[in-house]
């Protein structure tokens, strides 16, 4: 999988292009001058482009840009129950997939109590696993 992000930033006389590419192994970000000036004019820009508060300078790693992978959580429900309340602590309202102990996907009602807690309600009690992403 590859995701490309392209952006152009215009200064008073120069135009700069930024490109960020993500592949399964890594993510890179780069900046180059595409306008009528020279690369040294980048320092003269008043509003330099940033990602997560980090100024784009040359090739940077995801860690240097403050980019982390998406978080996920797996909840194993050992005791059969019709209602599961799960604290996933992901700080978001994740997608939820539930499977029973045989590995069959089970459909239930998902109630987001807040960005860190979900209540899953099913028509019958069972044990299994809930995957949050």
Offer a few descriptive terms:
133 residues, mainly beta, elongated
Explain the overall architecture.
With 133 residues, the protein is an all-beta fold. The chain is 0% helix and 53% strand. It has no helices and ten strands. Strands 6, 7, 8, 9 and 10 form a five-stranded antiparallel beta sheet that branches. Strand 2 and strand 3 form a beta hairpin. It starts with a strand and ends with a strand.
The level of helicity is under 10%
Q: Estimate the global geometry from the Cα principal axes.
A: elongated
The residue-averaged pLDDT reads 79
Number of helices: 0
**What share of residues are in beta strands?**
over 45%
| Classification by helices and strands | mainly beta
Strand segment count = 10
Uncertain regions spanning at least 5 consecutive residues: none
| Main sheet overview | 5 strands, antiparallel
Query: What Rg do the Cα atoms give?
Result: 23 Å
* C-alpha end-to-end distance: 18 Å
List SSEs in N-to-C order: EEEEEEEEEE
Question: Could you give a quick summary of the protein structure above?
Answer:
This protein is mainly beta and 133 residues long. The chain has strands at 3-10, 15-22, 27-33, 50-51, 54-55, 73-87, 96-100, 105-106, 109-114, 117-132.
Write the layout of secondary structure elements.
Elements: E1 3-10, E2 15-22, E3 27-33, E4 50-51, E5 54-55, E6 73-87, E7 96-100, E8 105-106, E9 109-114, E10 117-132
